[in-house]
Structures are given as structure tokens and as C-alpha cells.
Amino acid sequence: MIGRLAGRLDYRGPDHVLIDVGGVGYVVHVSDRTMAALPGPGEAVALYTDLLVREDLLQLFGFTSPVEKEWHRLLMTVQGIGAKASMAILGALGPEGVGRAISLGDWTAIKAAPGVGPKIAQRVVNELKDKAPAVMAMGGALPAEPAAPAEVIEPGAAAAPAGPAPRPAPPRSEGSAAAQAEALSALSNLGYGPGEAAGAVAEAAQSETETAALIRAALRLLAPKE
Q: Domain Helix-hairpin-helix DNA-binding motif class, which positions (predicted)?
């Protein structure tokens, strides 16, 4: 199983890149969002990968974080969601957006991904809502992206001219993954179910970023309505 690749980005295709790892080129399919975060050709790059095995085909899919990879694998457990649809959803929403949409039951956000219809989007939300908290919590314990390999310069060789700086990954817009993971853990310890806790944290994260504030806001949302 190939779980991670680190090498040099050789070229970009419409939906894939070629990564040179020790002289061997690996074709890795990526989402539009991941493609936008990658550096230019010739630059160092590292991606977490998932290998899709079929009778007549082997395909590698690349991700900037373990959380994104886990969402891809989880999305593909839903009937009607293949690799292409999963990558479309992740490309449209990103891993945090997917977790937020599923936790809040917002199937219209899932439907916004190209090629995903309303019935499939609703199925994604219904089947994955109780599994979302575990994946969301991963964001607080794992690195956001793999480190790219350092360039090795042979003795006596001139250093290669510096290329363009890699494009940064899209910024997080609503709360940090670590704070959301801690809030989920706190609500779980208080006895709330995974689905309701994840929904409350996702909604609270739209306005709060600190752990304590997230917990307080989520508790207000979970309080019985008079």
C-alpha cells in the first residue's frame, strides 16, 4: 500500500500530477483544491496517497492531509460515490467543509459538487453523520500537510536557482481543527452523542475559534429549547 509520496513535481495534468520519486514517476490524481495548493514543476512536493485497485486499473489519489484522505475513503463507502465524485466533493468543500456540511445535515452543500445529485448528497449526509466526529477529531492530532523532501546538493555542485514559492494551501475560514477536536471530545465526555455534538461544534465554529468559546457556544445550541 502506497500511503505517501515525496519527491519532485514533474508536470501537471487537468486532474493529476506526475511526481518523480527517485527516478520513478507516479501519476497521482488530485482535487482542484489540492492542485491549487501544489508548487510548480520542479519543486519539492509530498502528498498522502490512497491506492484504488480494480481488475484492470490502479489509480493513486493524493491529499494534502490525512484528514482529507480519510474523508475520501469514507465518502467512497457511500453507495453512488466513486473516486471521481469523492474528489469533486473534496475539491468543492475541502475536508473541513465536508465535515461541517455532514455534521449540520447540509446536503445542499454536498450537492454543490459537480456531478453530485440531491439524492446522493442526502445519502452522504444520512450515512456519514455519526461517523463525522471521528474524522473531524483527527484534525487536532495530525499534521496539516506532509513535509516535502529537502533538496540534497552534492559537494562541489552549484545550488539550483530558487524557483517560485509553493502556493499555500487554502486558509481555514472557521475555527481551527485542533479546537474543534477538543470541543468534540469535551462534549462526548459530557454524554452527548457523536452526531449531535458534531453538529453543534460545526455550527459554533462559524463564529468561534477558541476551544472554550466553541464549547460554550455548542452547549448553548444543545440546551433544551423552551
A: 73-92, 108-127
Return all residues near 158 (Cβ < 8 A) that are at least 6 apart.
Answer: none
- Out of 1.25.40.70, 3.40.640.10, 3.40.50.150, 2.40.50.140, the CATH code matching 4-63 is 2.40.50.140
Residuewise pLDDT in 10s, the chain (226 residues): 788 999 999 999 999 999 999 999 999 999 999 999 999 999 999 999 999 888 788 899 999 999 999 999 999 999 999 999 999 999 999 988 898 888 888 899 999 999 999 999 999 999 998 888 778 777 654 444 555 555 544 444 444 444 444 444 444 434 477 888 888 887 877 788 888 888 888 888 888 888 888 888 888 888 877 5
CA 118 to chain centre: 22
Indicate the burial class of 131 (C-beta count within 10 angstroms; 0-12, 13-18, 19 or more): middle
Q: pTM of the predicted model, to two decimals?
A: 0.70
CATH class of 66-129: mainly alpha
Topology, domain 177-222: Helicase, Ruva Protein; domain 3 (1.10.8)
Q: Taking the CB of residue 119, how many other CB atoms lie within 10 A of it?
A: 11
| Stretch(es) of the chain classified as CATH 2.40.50.140 | 4-63
Helix (H) or strand (E) holding 221: helix 211-222
Distance CA 182, CA 73 (A): 23
